[in-house]
Amino acid sequence: MRLNRFLAAAGFGSRRACEALILAGKVSINGHFIRELATTVEPDDDVRVGGKKARSAPLVYVLVHKPKGFVCTRSDERGRRTIYDLVPPHMGHLSHVGRLDKESEGLIILTNDGKFSQHLTHPTHEVEKEYEVVLDKAFNAELIPKFLRGFMIEEGRAKVEELHIIAPAVVKVVLRQGLKRQIRAMFYKFGYEVKRLVRTRIGKLGIRHIGPAEWRFLTPREVAVLSGADKKKA
Fold first, then answer.
1. Which end of the chain has the least Cβ crowding within 10 Å, N or C?
2. Are strands 156-158 and 151-153 parallel, antiparallel or unpaired?
3. Which residues contact 200 (CB under 8 A, 6 or more apart)?
C-alpha cells in the first residue's frame, strides 16, 4: 500500500494532508525518515508520524451494486454522482477494485487491501468477470469464434473466455482481462451498440441478493474465495 494511503487510513488526514506530512520529513519507516511520495508500506513496517506510531486500519471489503449514472471516482469535477455516494462517508478512503463506466451497472468492490485488489485485477490471476449485455439488434452467432480467439481494439488485443446467447439481442460474456470499455468496443467493431451492460459476477461472487444502489460487507469466506486463500489451504 502506498504510504499516503496507509497514513490516511490510519487517521492522519486526507491523502493530500498525508503527502504534506511526508514531504515535511515527519514520517519515518523502520527508523528512516521518508520524503518519497511513491514509498510503499509492508505489513511488518514500523511507521511513525512525529514519533507517534501509525497503526494500520483493519481491512475492509465492501460489495456495491452500482446503478447506471454513477462514476467510479471519489469526486467528480462535473458534479456527477459517484459510487462513494452509495456508501457511508467513513468509507470514502476505500479504493475501488477495477471500474465500471458511467453507463454500466453491476458489482464493484471497495477495499483498503491492496494485495486483494491486485489479485482481482491482474490478468495473471485470471479472475473471471461475467456480464449480461443487451445489444441494439440480434447477435450473429457466427461471430462467437472471433470473440473467443480475440482481435485488436484501441486498447490492445481483446478476447472473451465465454460468450453465450441468452436471447436474440442479449448475451452473457465472461472476461479474464479488463481493457478500458472492452465489451462495448468489441461489439462496436462488428456494428453493434451496447444498450445495457451489467456485471453480474466477480469470481464466484454473484449479483443475487443485492439490489441496485445497495451495499454490504463481504463475508470472510467470500474474501478467502475471491483472493484464492481457500485454494492455498487445500
1. C
2. antiparallel
3. 106, 107, 130, 131, 132, 172, 206, 207
Is 41 inside a domain boundary? yes
What the block records as the C-alpha cell of 2 is 502506498
Residue 85: give its domain's CATH number: 3.30.70.580
CB neighbours (10 Å) of residue 145?
A: 9
Q: Does 234 score more than 70 pLDDT?
A: no
Most confident listed range (74-83, 113-122, 208-217): 208-217
Catalytic site residue 101?
Answer: yes
Report how far residue 133's alpha carbon sits from residue 169's, in angstroms, rounded to the nearest whole number: 8
How many other C-beta atoms lie within 10 A of the C-beta of residue 55? 10
Model pLDDT for residues 25-61, shown as the tens digit of each residue: 999 999 999 999 999 988 789 999 999 999 877 889 9
pLDDT at 233 over 80: no
Residue in the structure block whose three cell numbers are 472473451: 160
Q: Is 190 strand, coil or helix?
A: coil
Number of domains within the chain: 3
Tell me the chain's radius of gyration from C-alpha atoms.
Answer: 20
Indicate which residue of 46, 76, 85, 101 is catalytic: 101
- What is the grid cell recorded at 105? 451497472
Query: All 3 cell numbers of residue 29?
Result: 519507516
Same domain, 192 and 136: yes
Of the candidates 61, 50, 18, 34, which has an alpha carbon nearest to the alpha carbon of residue 219? 61
What's the one-letter identity of residue 54?
A
- The helix-helix angle for 114-121 and 220-227 (nearest 10°) equals 50
DSSP, collapsed to helix, strand or coil, labels residue 122 as: coil
